[in-house]
């Protein structure tokens, strides 16, 4: 299979639509990380993503009869744009089924390239099911996003270009992983010619389907998939990619949302390009690899796989970069409620910048403050701050890794009820579409009272919503049955220390 894949890569027809993208040196990062860091610029493709390679190569293999019937795909992002452009260049009718929550910028980009867009469902699974219905009704040819050997061969030209452009020492290539098409193509070509080069996959920690498959020895379906990095939000690695990757990939690293945001900033500072979160994923993994292994003097390449991000996501990304670089600690500190307490607190933390401070009077004896403190990367300095505060008699809760605190509490600190009551608190992912809120409220029993609600738009397909509810005692054991019927992803937060300290 490996030799056949390499032959397909060598014969792949991609350059009628795609371009050979450059490798940019990351000078500032290289100096900071004591390794030579290079970035493969797939964000410079005509559709701002590598996906045009696989889509065009797959279409180039179709018969005239298949082309005459038209092509179809279910996609919420880069594959849709790649297929739309490929079809336009070949003069083939293209239909793209997209979830209704797809950001308008992506819908308009697909339409601008001549494809017909059908909006269906609130999730990819519903869009994919509808695409199959249209295939049965009209005979369209399905163009898969990753689970196809010709798609893999088209993506594999990225690896061919890397070895052509960089003939010197190369220690590792870091590749973002969703369904596995890109890394399978790169791994096949690179390992066939230069097996000493490590191929390291990088996945979002909440959609790590390749890592799960390698650990299990077979493909598995994840119970839940996070959607922060939408471009790699896949529940199961493809069958064709996994047949290659189980033998060729050297390691899989996972990165979290904050680490991806920090990598977006790094790429901007190096290239002035604004990567999407999944586009910066491989750099986040590269940085983590250096931190975990302590390697120096190596040559490491990462793939900036795409730049199709919404402008209104940038504020949220910017908020999280310092946390991703481990240069900020988010702490909940209890201090005496008396004049001069804040001044004394600042003396204890020393000559450090306070990056955030939230407080509102709530108790005559003690004050709970939500504070951001600048620290040095690595974690040791953060622990030193916590230890110094505790030694000075201040109770401290480290909220740096607490999603509820970072998404909601920092914007709500101090808002407390004036009297005690019991409430159930949950964090939801609402689809970003009209009617999502009323659908949620309609499914709740009429005697439930909404006691807390916080939402911020982050420019993503899903909105992050925090909801507090006063629930009659008889319904408490059935709360999550109601939520399951709604179908929105949720997490219980009633016992989260950030909520208990600042909102309860």
Automatic annotation (TrEMBL):
Alphabetized PANTHER family for the sequence: THREONINE DEHYDRATASE, MITOCHONDRIAL, THREONINE DEHYDRATASE, MITOCHONDRIAL-RELATED
Keywords: Amino-acid biosynthesis, Branched-chain amino acid biosynthesis, Isoleucine biosynthesis, Lyase, Pyridoxal phosphate, Repeat
Gene: ilvA
Family membership: Belongs to the serine/threonine dehydratase family.
Functional summary from the UniProt entry: Catalyzes the anaerobic formation of alpha-ketobutyrate and ammonia from threonine in a two-step reaction. The first step involved a dehydration of threonine and a production of enamine intermediates (aminocrotonate), which tautomerizes to its imine form (iminobutyrate). Both intermediates are unstable and short-lived. The second step is the nonenzymatic hydrolysis of the enamine/imine intermediates to form 2-ketobutyrate and free ammonia. In the low water environment of the cell, the second step is accelerated by RidA.
InterPro entries assigned to the protein according to its UniProt record, in alphabetical order: ACT-like_dom_sf (IPR045865), Ser/Thr_Dehydratase (IPR050147), Ser/Thr_deHydtase_PyrdxlP-BS (IPR000634), TD_ACT-like (IPR001721), TD_ACT-like_sf (IPR038110), Thr_deHydtase_biosynth (IPR005787), TrpB-like_PALP (IPR001926), TrpB-like_PALP_sf (IPR036052)
Protein name, UniProt field: L-threonine dehydratase
Pfam families: PALP (PF00291), Thr_dehydrat_C (PF00585)
Residue span(s) of domain ACT-like: 329-401, 424-495
Pathway: Amino-acid biosynthesis; L-isoleucine biosynthesis; 2-oxobutanoate from L-threonine: step 1/1
Catalytic activity: L-threonine = 2-oxobutanoate + NH4(+)
Origin: domain of life: Bacteria
Subunit description: Homotetramer.
Annotated EC: 4.3.1.19
Biological process, per Gene Ontology: isoleucine biosynthetic process; L-serine catabolic process; L-threonine catabolic process
Cofactor: pyridoxal 5'-phosphate
Organism: Pistricoccus aurantiacus
Gene Ontology MF terms in the entry: L-serine ammonia-lyase activity; pyridoxal phosphate binding; threonine deaminase activity
């Amino acid at each position: 299979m490996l030799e056949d894949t390499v032959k397909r890569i060598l014969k792949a027809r991609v350059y009628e639509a795609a371009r050979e993208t450059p490798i940019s040196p990351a000078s500032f990062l290289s100096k900071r990380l004591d390794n030579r860091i290079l970035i493969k610029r797939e964000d410079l493709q005509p559709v701002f993503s590598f996906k045009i390679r696989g889509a065009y190569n797959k279409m180039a293999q179709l018969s005239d009869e298949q082309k005459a019937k038209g092509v179809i795909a279910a996609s919420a992002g880069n594959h849709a744009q790649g297929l739309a452009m490929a079809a336009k260049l070949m003069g083939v009718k293209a239909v793209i089924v997209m979830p209704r929550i797809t950001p308008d910028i992506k819908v308009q980009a697909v339409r601008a390239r001549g494809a017909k867009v059908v909006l269906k469902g609130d999730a990819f699974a519903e869009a994919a099911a509808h695409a199959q219905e249209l295939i049965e009704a009209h005979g369209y040819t399905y163009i898969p996003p990753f689970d196809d050997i010709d798609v893999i061969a088209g993506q594999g030209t990225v690896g061919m270009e890397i070895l052509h452009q960089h003939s010197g020492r190369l220690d590792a290539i870091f590749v973002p992983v969703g369904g596995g098409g890109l890394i399978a193509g790169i791994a096949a070509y690179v390992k066939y010619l230069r097996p000493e080069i490590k191929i390291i996959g990088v996945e979002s920690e909440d959609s790590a389907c390749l890592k799960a498959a390698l650990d299990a020895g077979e493909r598995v379906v994840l119970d839940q998939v996070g959607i922060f990095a939408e471009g790699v939000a896949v529940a199961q690695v493809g069958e064709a990619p996994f047949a290659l990757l189980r033998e060729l990939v050297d390691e899989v690293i996972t990165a979290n949302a904050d680490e991806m945001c920090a990598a977006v900033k790094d790429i901007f500072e190096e290239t002035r390009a604004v990567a999407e979160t999944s586009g910066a994923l491989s750099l986040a993994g590269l940085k983590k690899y250096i931190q975990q292994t302590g390697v120096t003097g190596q040559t490491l390449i990462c793939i900036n796989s795409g730049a199709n991000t919404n402008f209104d996501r940038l504020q949220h990304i910017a908020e999280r970069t310092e946390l991703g670089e481990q240069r900020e600690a988010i702490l909940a500190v209890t201090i005496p409620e008396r004049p001069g307490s804040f001044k004394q607190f600042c003396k204890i933390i020393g000559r450090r910048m306070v990056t955030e401070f939230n407080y509102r009077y709530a108790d005559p004896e003690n004050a709970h403050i939500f504070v951001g403190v600048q620290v040095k990367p690595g974690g040791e300095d953060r622990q030193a701050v916590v230890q110094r505060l505790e030694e000075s008699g201040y109770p401290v809760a480290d909220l740096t890794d607490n999603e509820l605190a970072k998404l909601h509490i920092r914007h709500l600190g101090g808002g407390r009820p004036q009297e005690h009551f019991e409430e159930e608190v949950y964090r939801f992912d609402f689809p970003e579409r009209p009617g999502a809120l009323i659908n949620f409220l309609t499914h709740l029993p009429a005697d439930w009272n909404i006691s807390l609600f916080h939402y911020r738009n982050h420019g993503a397909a899903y909105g992050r919503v925090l909801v507090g509810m006063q629930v009659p005692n008889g319904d408490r054991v059935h709360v999550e049955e109601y939520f399951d019927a709604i179908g929105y992803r949720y997490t219980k937060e009633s016992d989260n220390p950030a909520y208990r300290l600042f909102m309860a």
